[in-house]
Design goal:
Layout lengths: L2 E7 H5 L3 H8 L3 H19 L2 E6 L9 E5 L2 E5 L6 H12 L4 E6 L3 H9 L3 E3 L1 H25 L9 H20 L1
Parallel strand pairs: 1-2, 1-5, 2-4, 5-6
Antiparallel strand pairs: 3-4
Helix pairs in contact: 2-3, 3-6
Length: 178
C-alpha cells in the first residue's frame, strides 16, 4: 500500500476554517497557525497519514525554513516563492509509486495543476470535514475506552462476553431443573 502524504496550503486553510478565520480577524495569525498545526498533528497521529503544512513567506526575506512542530513538517517558503509553487514542485518530486500525495487547497488553479501531476486534491472545506470526522472518531474511541475501563483487564470481546453470559444462564437454568 502507498504511503499517504497530505500537503496543506496553510494560509488557505486559515482563510477558510471558521475557528482559524476568527483568530485571523483578531490579528492573531500565530495562534491560527498553531491551532492548524495542532489539528493536523492529531489527524496525522490518529489516521497514520504524514502531513506537511506549507506557509507563504513570499514577501519575507530569507531562505526556505522547514522544521517539525508537533510531529508535523512545517515549511515556510523562500523569499519570492509562493506556497503554490513550492507545493507544485514538491508534488512533482514526491508523487511516485510508493507515495500518494494529496493536496489540501481551495485554490482552483492549484487544484488543477496538482491533479495533472497525479496528486489527489481536497478543498479546504473537505479537508476540514475530514479532520472533524477524524476528531469525532477519536472522541468516540476515547469515550468507549473510558466506559469499558482499562482494556488489559478484560481480554474478551463484547460478542464473547455475551456468549459466555448466555451459556452461564442456560447452564444455571438446566441445573435448577434437575
Amino acid at each position: 500500500m502507498k504511503k499517504q502524504l497530505y500537503i496543506v496550503d496553510g494560509y488557505n486553510m486559515i482563510g477558510a476554517w471558521p475557528e482559524l478565520v476568527a483568530l485571523k480577524k483578531q490579528d492573531d495569525l500565530e495562534s491560527a497557525r498553531d491551532l492548524l498545526i495542532q489539528r493536523c498533528s492529531n489527524f496525522q497521529k490518529f489516521e497514520n497519514i504524514e502531513v506537511w503544512i506549507v506557509f507563504d513567506a513570499q514577501f519575507v526575506p530569507g531562505i526556505t525554513q522547514s522544521f517539525d512542530q508537533a510531529q508535523v513538517k512545517v515549511i515556510f517558503t523562500a523569499e519570492g516563492e509562493t506556497a503554490d509553487s513550492y507545493i507544485e514542485r514538491t508534488v512533482s518530486e514526491m508523487n511516485m509509486r510508493l507515495v500518494q500525495v494529496s493536496v489540501a487547497t481551495s485554490d482552483l488553479a492549484e487544484q488543477w495543476l496538482i491533479f495533472q501531476k497525479g496528486a489527489l486534491r481536497k478543498s479546504a472545506r473537505d479537508f476540514y470535514k475530514e479532520l472533524e470526522s477524524s476528531r469525532d472518531k477519536q472522541t468516540e474511541l476515547t469515550r468507549h475506552f473510558h466506559q469499558k475501563g482499562n482494556g488489559r483487564r478484560n481480554p474478551w470481546s463484547d460478542a464473547q462476553l455475551s456468549l459466555l453470559n448466555h451459556l452461564r444462564f442456560s447452564l444455571g437454568s438446566k441445573k435448577r431443573k434437575e
